[in-house]
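Structure (tokenized):
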């Protein structure tokens, strides 16, 4: 099957990096669509839902950093392709479920899975609006379940097809299924709980902890997995260094993602402008702005934050306040700080073209579309 992964924005400064990311993304997607396991997905709606976001494509930043981490320690990237594909599928099930939890309607410029299948349930089965919405949610949950199973099977390919030591593969899958998943789900739960708490009841460390659990832990695991496969062992300072690099970069990435949720271009992000503001998303941007706000400005922000029906003009005013009160600028500086801390972890990694690409990857994902 021909794939059309979403293109990364072009930037001559990072042309070599973008070419490297695109080449690895294509290899990962080719492996995914050649998967004999995916051919077992049925019935048709479940198969279509499980493959939906892959057909739309993605930047595949986690698989790319896994493969680059493998090469940076002297390993063979080809042996790590199943793990890179597994990370992409694993990340995708979290997106499908996250879209349901956040009630998002758009992903990568198209309808989210639960919205698409609510529409298909109505069109193909004649469901009324309520039953169609329930059907879309059910298909989204089940598609995520299938994707999680698929991710583990792709990791199994490391042993079955590429001869990676079975004990090493088992340890990686065990860590993904326990430590990583429990931390990630904890972060998602905290995000949901924070949405029901007053912004002034939260502090920056709590928000950053939640961001790391939602995003940083999976980046950390991606880097650790690549380096572990490359070295044939997890017991190495190089593995720890690359895991630390990816962990810090993951926080920087999420901070930048939050910035794009406020000031990003809808055509590039695939999300509606102001969606995070209407959702009332608890971010460092909002927290810092409220800390600097006057009483009148606080009232103005709260008149829009979390208001699903906020008019475009209200959202625009809120964005201006988030800028004027240094919420945007402070968060950008914080993302840069985390990126610099991430880069410091690479000091012990031997110099190579792959180390250069890892550094550029961190700088690029934090600077993208700013």
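Design, position by position:
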């Amino acid at each position: 099957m021909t794939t059309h992964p979403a293109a990364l924005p072009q930037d001559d400064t990072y042309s070599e990096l973008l070419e490297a990311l695109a080449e690895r993304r294509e290899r990962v997607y080719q492996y995914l669509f050649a998967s004999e396991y995916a051919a077992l997905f049925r019935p048709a709606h479940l198969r279509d839902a499980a493959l939906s976001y892959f057909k739309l494509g993605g930047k595949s930043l986690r698989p790319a950093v896994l493969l680059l981490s493998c090469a940076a320690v002297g390993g063979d990237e080809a042996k790590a392709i199943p793990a890179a594909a597994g990370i992409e599928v694993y990340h995708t099930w979290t997106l499908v479920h996250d879209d349901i939890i956040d009630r998002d309607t758009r992903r990568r410029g198209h309808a989210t899975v639960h919205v698409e299948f609510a529409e298909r349930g109505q069109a193909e089965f004649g469901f009324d609006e309520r039953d169609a919405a329930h059907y879309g949610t059910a298909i989204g949950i089940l598609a995520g379940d299938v994707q999680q199973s698929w991710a583990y099977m792709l990791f199994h390919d490391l042993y079955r097809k590429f001869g990676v030591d079975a004990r090493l593969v088992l340890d990686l899958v065990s860590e993904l299924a326990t430590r990583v998943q429990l931390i990630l789900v904890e972060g998602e739960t905290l995000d949901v709980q924070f949405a029901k708490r007053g912004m002034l009841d939260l502090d920056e460390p709590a928000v950053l902890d939640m961001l790391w659990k939602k995003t940083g832990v999976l980046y950390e695991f991606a880097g650790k997995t690549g380096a572990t496969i490359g070295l044939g062992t997890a017991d190495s300072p190089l593995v720890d260094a690359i895991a630390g690099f990816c962990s810090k970069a993951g926080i920087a990435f999420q901070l930048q993602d939050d910035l794009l949720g406020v000031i990003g271009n809808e055509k590039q992000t695939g999300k509606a402008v102001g969606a995070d503001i209407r959702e009332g998303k608890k971010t460092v941007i909002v927290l810092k702005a409220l800390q600097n706000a006057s009483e009148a400005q606080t009232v103005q922000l709260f008149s829009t934050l979390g208001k699903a029906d906020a008019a475009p003009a209200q959202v625009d005013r809120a964005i201006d306040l988030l800028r004027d009160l240094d919420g945007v600028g402070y968060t950008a500086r914080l993302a840069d700080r985390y990126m610099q801390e991430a880069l410091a972890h690479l000091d012990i990694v031997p110099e190579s073209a792959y180390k250069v690409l890892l550094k550029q990857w961190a700088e690029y994902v934090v600077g993208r579309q700013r």
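Reviewer-requested clarification: The chain has 16 helices and two strands. The longest strand covers residues 106-107.
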